[in-house]
Amino acid sequence: MRRSDFTFTSESVSEGHPDKVCDRISDEVVDLFYREAEANGMPASDVRVACETLSTTNRVVIAGEVRGPDGLCHRLADDKVTVNAEKIAKVARDAIQSIGYDQAGFSWRDCNIEVLLHGQSADIAQGVDEKDNKDVGAGDQGIMFGYACRETPELMPAPIYYAHRILAEMAEARHSGRAPALGPDAKSQVSVAYENGKPVRATQIVVSTQHLDDKLSSADIRTIVEPYVISALPAGWVNEDTVWHVNPTGAFVIGGPDGDAGLTGRKIIVDTYGGAAPHGGGAFSGKDPTKVDRSAAYAARHLAKNIVAAELAERCTIQLSYAIGVAEPLSIYVDTEGTGVISDEKLEAAIRKAVALTPRSIRERLRLNRPIYARTSAYGHFGRLPEPDGGFSWEALDLVDELRAALR
To answer: To which H or E segment does residue 56 belong?
Structure first.
């Protein structure tokens, strides 16, 4: 049984954090392949991308396996190839510029970008290529989790939701010019007190942010960021008892990949539920949706959110499991932590009745074969608003009626 009174903490990191720079570049590569496939008449379902990025002082290395309009893309160095190393380097450089890095140790203008992508393994391809096979298999084995609860308007756990909002508001202020002293690299952490199972206030707030003026003190930085923190949190959550830690080690001028090497996929808890729910272990960024690490995690969130929105439970965790080359999930597990209006077993049965959960069905239902991924790379893959072009489609509340009908 879940405790009713406790304190829980989650962290977020900004788009300029070294790992998030890498997530952004990897997802820009996924989007590039989808755009080029559409432009050159290649079925979007044939795109394959598994892209990993490393960043360090004035250097970016992009590696992995891909398939685009020119087949297996063994000739990425050929400037006549549709998706070549030059185009890939350009989207990486554009991403770095968009984030805001133009510093001596890491600049979009002159950082060295090395592209080491190659063709997808034929052994993997045979298990996931669609062709005429309606029951195309999963791209790998694994377990994926989805979660939803009533703590925030977007049915997310409060600590991670508000940690994201703090950094998103700071980033907007930086990009707009309202906070020119702030740099791209930042982290936040919010400790939330729960009473009778409900989040009621922030007990501790941590904000560490890069700043461009080395003369600014921690107190100066708090003066800059405090309004954005207050704006991001619910009214009354910050009071005289709230403990603040703003740039607690002092100066934070050297930031981003110049200060610390970054890698794709190292912020999976930030990307999901901030530790408030289980994680299957697989990263999302840089992967096309044949990889169930990504698509099935989105599907599990979609189901959990709609179950809570349908007032079938106050909280809901869903686990899906898959085997490489096998279409149907090996298992579907629901845990409503005793908050469900019906049994978890009946919810599992309703899910099977309401939706198909083969990898192909997930991709088609959530419209995942499209260039919608770069925007997911910072401030969470969940708790966002669905967008007209299919972005964040897994956040839509469009299964409420189907789930209720499946219980009749």
So the answer is: strand 48-56
